[in-house]
Amino acid sequence: MKPDLIATRQAIQQGLTTSAQVAEECLALAQSAACESVFLQLTPDSLRATATQVGIHNSPLAGLPVSIKDLFDVQGQVTAAGSVVLAQAPAAKRDSAAVSRLRQAGAGLIGRTNMVEFAFSGVGNNPHHGTPKAWDALADRPAGSDPAGHVPGGSSSGAAVSVATGAAFIGLGSDTGGSIRIPAALNGLVGFKNTARRVPTLGALPLSTTLDTVCAMTRSVRDTILAHEILSARQVPASSRPLGSYRLAIARCVMQNDMDSTVEKAFERSLQTLRAAGAQIVELPLTELEELSAMMATGGFSPSESYAWHRHLLDSSAAQYDPRVSARILRGANMRAHEYMDLVQARTQWIARMQKTLETCDAVLSPTTPIAAPLRSSVAPGAERDAEFFRVNGLLLRNTSAVNTLDGCAISLPCHQPGELPVGLMAWHGPMHDDTILQLALVLEDTLRGLH
Fold first, then answer.
1. Residue whose C-alpha is closest to residue 161's, from 140, 126, 188
2. 137 close to 34: Cβ distance less than 8 angstroms
3. What is the pLDDT of residues 157-169, one digit of tens each?
4. Which residue ranges does UniProt annotate as crossing the membrane (predicted)?
5. d(CA 211, CA 261)
6. Which three-class secondary structure state does DSSP give residue 250?
7. Cα dist from 147 to 133, 144, 377, whole Å
8. Over the stretch 384-393, which tens digit does the pLDDT of each residue have?
9. Distances, alpha carbon 417 to alpha carbons 131, 379, 404, 448, in Å
10. Can you tell me the distance from the alpha carbon of 114 to that of 16, in angstroms, rounded to the nearest whole number?
11. CA 13, chain centre distance (Å)
12. E strand or H helix at 357, and its extent?
């Protein structure tokens, strides 16, 4: 893995390199085969202009490259959300709130990253612009890897690969059902989903106004904390709590069902490592998680809220949509007003019950996804592979989406060993526990570092 942002910023401040030199190195990576289908637009002039500003090395982000998911407004650029339907839309008149905060912190914007069309899938496919390869783009990929490559996870697919390959230090993205944590897990990165209200969504094209969360992926927890502080305009308190002072729970329930052997091995090994280091790990039934399937039986928030936004575009341009995306959006057309209101109320009551149960622990540990990344060829566009695509999509989203329904916060950390497919360990809790999750993540990362 490439050096993280904080280490690179320190090297710049020590005179070992410059922001301009790092910018050129990242641009070269962004244009290499490793980043095929990763960027929809590169902005080298903007990046170079930022990297050569006087005193930029003293800013929090030191002019270092940050990638922007094609979901966010950047002044003068078209926000197409990975689609062709919006390709001719007017350019944004101003930056989104998240992009504005990153600029103010000294980010160099390297370009717009590819994504699942309209952010509606956890797999990472895009039939219009191509699908990035996940960890296969890395030089240290496992021996015998299939040259077709594995899916990058979605919807923030390009954002993840831009960070994993070293083209960017922070990948700005969104997480409505796992769109940061899934690609983080499948690319060996750190992905943090903050409590949604922590970061404004202004200037980001919506999927679900109830669940959308603005957040980022990085190569280390300390970089994640820095990115969160910038995006949320708040400080995360420092903590000296040792691992043994945290009460960690594991839920032997739906979140551990259907694990493939790669994930099961990495997850159980991680728990053993943490226990050996003194972690308090208890089992928590969390039977409330079993209620989610019935609660979402009428379609859930994402289909209904996305249909409200897309209905006019679908009337005129349905044929231009990825059919797998339009099929999910159109599920929302049949939700009745009383069903939506019932869902809102049921979620509120469910969150209250979950918060009561979670009072007994500092965090829950789960696999981020129950399966490792499947081959791109197995879920490529084509009606004959639709059934497999939707099966994989459901599995990838299952664990992460529960946290969005909870209005909670969660972080995915790499927990695989060299030569294994990347696997993510997710630490999570309810709303407004962001600081505890981030403080714990530093300790977990340090304890698990020997595994990968």
1. 188
2. yes
3. 999 999 999 999 9
4. none
5. 31
6. strand
7. 10, 9, 10
8. 999 999 999 9
9. 26, 26, 29, 10
10. 33
11. 30
12. helix 337-358
CB 225 within 8 A of CB 191: no
120 within 8 A of 323, measured Cβ to Cβ: no
The CATH class, in words, for 1-292+355-452 is alpha beta
Spatial distance between the Cα atoms of 411 and 441, rounded to a whole number of angstroms: 7
DSSP 313: H
Beta strands in 120-222 (DSSP E): 170-174, 190-193, 214-218
List CB contacts of 391: < 8 A, sequence separation 6 or more.
none
pLDDT tens digits, 269-304: 999 999 999 999 999 999 999 999 999 999 999 999
Q: DSSP 3-state assignment of 42?
A: strand
Q: Is the dihedral of CA 131, 135, 139, 145 positive or negative?
A: negative
Of how many residues is the chain composed? 452
A 10 A CB-CB count for 84 gives: 15
Is the peptide bond prior to 155 cis by the omega test (within 30 degrees of 0)? yes
Residues 180-196: what's their mean pLDDT?
98
Among 429, 423, 428, smallest CA distance to 448 is for 423
Task: Specify the pLDDT at position 148.
Answer: 77
- CA-to-CA distance for 386 and 388, rounded, in angstroms? 5
Q: Assess contact for 416 and 140: CB atoms under 8 A.
A: no
Name residue, tokens 């084509």. 382
Alpha carbons 66 and 171: distance in angstroms, whole number: 6
Q: Which two tokens stand for residue 154?
A: 């979605």
CB 12 within 8 Å of CB 61: no
What is the enclosing helix (H) or strand (E) of 109?
strand 108-113
Q: Which residue is associated with the tokens 């990968």?
A: 452
Please count the other Cβ atoms lying within 10 Å of the Cβ belonging to residue 394: 12
- What is 339-354 written as a DSSP string? HHHHHHHHHHHHHHHH
Pick from 109, 104, 99: nearest CA to 51:
109
3-class DSSP state of 282 = strand
Q: Which positions ≥6 away from 422 have C-beta within 8 Å?
A: 134, 135, 185, 186, 187, 188, 372, 373, 414, 416
Give me the DSSP letters along 257-270.
Answer: TT--HHHHHHHHHH
Neighbours of 296 (CB within 10 A): 17
- Two tokens, residue 356: 């009561």
Nearest-angstrom CA–CA distance, 257 and 448: 23
